Amino acid sequence: MSVALVTGSAGLIGSESVRHFARLGLTVVGIDNDMRGYFFGADGSTAWQVEQLKSELGASYQHHSIDIRDRDAVAALFTRYGKDISVVIHTAAQPSHDWAAKEPFTDFDVNAVGTLNLLENTRLHAPDAPFIFTSTNKVYGDTPNRLPLVEQETRYELDPAHTYYEGIREDMSIDHSLHSIFGVSKVAADVLVQEYGRYFGLKTAAFRGGTLTGPAHSAAELHGFLAYLMRCNMERRVYTIYGYKGKMVRDAIHSNDVVTAFEAFFRAPRVGEVYNLGGGRQSNCSHLEAFQLAEEISGVEMRHVYDEQARTGDHQWYVSDMGRFREHYPDWKQQYDVPAILREMYEANAERWTPQA
């Protein structure tokens, strides 16, 4: 038996990974205890996705409601499957930099200690398995906000002559910046993943994600920019813009494009790698531009209010340069852009995201 062990298996990237690697013929062992429901309430719960995965995949999917902070439970699971584990895909996290400030211990224990538990058990029980980690662009802190941005009608932008115009590379420093508590815990996890590669020789990769998105997102205000925006539009909710006049820019990468990148690494793994992962110049937008796209797709006017106070450490402009990953994996192709992502969200959630009575 060849096993793909996926943490956060009912989340956006986790569930996409479960389906993708099951289609490749692996038995998928999923770990998810719906902490997202604790973080974000009913909107963020992934319980519905667990039931879908069980129904769709049957015996190909084995679910375990384990907390990755529980060292003994994690060790027992790795002991059970051992060297049958062909890949570890670690997507479980506390994913919000706003939420982290409320419970710093919880944030750090889930993001950093949980990652250490998984890495150490991979080293002990499945040392040949590639270890794929969903890190975040928040490891760069607010350093991107020092870029010389130019205000345009609907967005902030860089001069085309700037070295980072095509996107931010992995050579941007992660030091001497404001990270948020969440950013700190993810830096710790990111560096652990690198070190288990460099020090112990494991085949590890930290993918520093921008806006990872898709129709399976359990969208909540504190996490899930495009999905939450589309949900607000469809349910006639009021969306709050926090700062930067709504002109802050995000690049967005579809969850399917993410997991095909994971597959590329799985098939030809490397040691201690770091890759920026995002939509790049092909797929990015400001909040104002996303509003316009959502309105065009749904035919419904976007309801919103503006709060001048930007979120602490929030990026004013972030576009990823995936040149390093493309150099290592030239056959990987990005399929989606922002309009296609939003349209798919609209069509996939037409029944779930209906106007509230």
Automatic annotation (TrEMBL):
**Source superkingdom:** Bacteria
Where would I find the NAD-dependent epimerase/dehydratase domain in this sequence? 4-278
Q: Which SUPFAM superfamilies does this one have?
A: NAD(P)-binding Rossmann-fold domains
Please state which protein family the record places this protein in.
Answer: Belongs to the NAD(P)-dependent epimerase/dehydratase family.
For this entry, the protein name equals NAD-dependent epimerase
This protein's species is: Actinocatenispora thailandica
Q: What is the lineage of its organism?
A: Bacteria, Bacillati, Actinomycetota, Actinomycetes, Micromonosporales
